[in-house]
Amino acid sequence: MQTPTQIANDALTQIGQGLISDISSTNVNAILCKQYYDICWEEVLREFPWKEVLKRIEIVGDIAEDEDGKDYIFLLPDDLVKVIEVSNTDNKDVSEDYEQRGQNLYGDEETVYMKYIGSDGFTIATAGYDTPFMPSYVQHLVALLLASKIVFRITQNDSMQGLLYQEYKVELDQAMVKNNTRSSRAGEAYWTEA
User: Fold this and answer.
1) Which residues lie below 8 Å from residue 83, measured CB to CB, with a gap of 6+?
2) Mutual orientation of helices 28-47 and 4-14 as an angle, nearest 10°?
3) DSSP state, 191?
4) pLDDT (0 to 100) of residue 187
5) At 190, is the pLDDT very low, low, confident or very high (cuts 50, 70, 90)?
6) What is the C-alpha to C-alpha distance for residues 4 and 34, in angstroms, rounded to an integer?
7) 3-state class of 103 per DSSP?
8) CA-CA 20 to 30 A from 173: which of 48, 70, 111, 122?
9) pTM (2 decimals)?
């Protein structure tokens, strides 16, 4: 797994800029990279249920006093990026019956299983501390998106910004196909039991 500085340098290389020694340095390019780094990871993670960051947990709700008639309130995990599916104890998808509001989920069954995209290890603050492995093509997506977000601030070239974003979208489609066709070991779930 590349470090945040290596991903930032990949982004800077895409726009023809010199490399930085550390994403936390006071160099203008480093400051821009650091400003958008976490945002780019979250955006890439939201785009697709990458197998490496899917998690599944059992959550038990507390009785809710909800004006919309939901019986239970569930506190969502801190690393939640996106809820993929909510299922009941019979493993039936009940996602339509649940509503996310802020860091809470509201629904009608006391115990549910939630499959979600988690972000542990992908922020600058947590990089390197149990960072999940992500394929190089996903890391490169982050670099391309980062490049598209900072290029105008550095070069004032809006056409380059558009080209980089188009390249990101094309490579995103290819990465989703690659990630979707990677097979999990026979008989094993492709999510992490959190």
Assistant:
1) 76, 95, 100, 105, 114, 115, 116
2) 100
3) S
4) 41
5) low
6) 8
7) coil
8) 122
9) 0.82
Residue 90: count of CB within 10 angstroms of its CB: 7
Retrieve residue 154's tokens. Answer: 């550095």
Q: Would you state the structure tokens that stand for residue 25, as one six-digit string?
A: 């340095």
In the chain, where does DSSP find H-type helix? 4-14, 28-47, 136-155, 158-181
Alpha carbon distance 130, 22 (integer Å) = 20
What angle is formed at CA 188 by the lines to CA 177 and CA 52, rounded to 5 degrees? 45
123, pLDDT greater than 80 = no
Task: Kindly report the length of the chain.
Answer: 194
What the block records as the tokens of 79 is 């690393």
DSSP letters for 47-88: HS--GGGEEEEEEEPEEP--TT---EEEEPPTTEEEEEEEE-
Domain ranges of the chain: 4-50+134-183, 51-118
Across the beta sheet with 62-63, the strand order is 62-63, 72-75, 104-107, 99-101
User: Which of 86, 89, 83, 110 minimizes the C-alpha distance to 97?
Assistant: 86
Neighbouring residues of 9: CB distance < 8 A, sequence distance ≥ 6: 19, 20
Q: Are the CB atoms for 121 and 129 separated by under 8 Å?
A: yes
% of the chain exceeding 90 in pLDDT: 68
114 has which bridge partners? 57, 86
